[in-house]
Fold this sequence. Notes:
alpha+beta, 3 helices, 4-stranded antiparallel β-sheet
Amino acid sequence: MPISVWVRDEGHQRLASLHDVLHLVPPPLPPGWYDPFVRPEDHHRFPMLAHVDPYGNTIFNRSQMSAVLEELAAIQPELDGVALSTARALGVLIGTHACRPHRYLWFIGD
């Protein structure tokens, strides 16, 4: 189930999306949305990523995004292909657009 990913400010204005940073990661090209790659048995290891709601909105603030970045770094050795590219793109999105005051990372489920 594809999940859109946006960086928004306090007024909910969209500042950047996962799609905006795809060209900054090596191939294969990620699809431009987040497709959860944390297996159920790994939820305890990656609690931030595991709690992204595929059917609703999940919002991370600046301090939570630090934990998301740590989880993305830890999970990358276990990923390959599109999942790895997506994890890298999420890291770029957070690092370049989201880790500033009054910015929020939104996962927008269907």
